[in-house]
Design goal:
- 23% of the residues lie in helices and 39% in strands.
- It is an alpha+beta fold and 106 residues long.
- It has a 6-stranded mixed β-sheet with strand order 4-3-2-1-5-6.
- Strand 5 and strand 6 form a beta hairpin.
- The longest helix is centred in the C-terminal third of the chain and has 15 residues.
- It starts with a strand and ends with a strand.
Length: 106
Amino acid sequence: MSQHIIPVASPKAGRVIVTVGYDPALHEAFMNLCDDDGEPSYTSPSGIGVGDIPRLVQEQLGIALPLSVIDGVQRDVADLRTGAIDVARRMTQYNSDGTVSEAVRW
């Protein structure tokens, strides 16, 4: 699955690490939240679409993710639709301002 990981400061949840992405095997997007120690605190329900991510982030965290993170997930889905086979093996880490700090494909 593609993963886009960003640390954020949330008025609702404090400092958390947000992971959003797309799982081509399940044909669905996802969002997970972890605290600074890596303990999971939220996992999105099954069956969500990429378009649901901004709403879930707003509901759970009270903030909006940087557009670059959402765009990254949408690019993965677009690549999948055009036949890319490495979408399930992509991980992008972002700085808290939404700039990419590291992108890995394997």
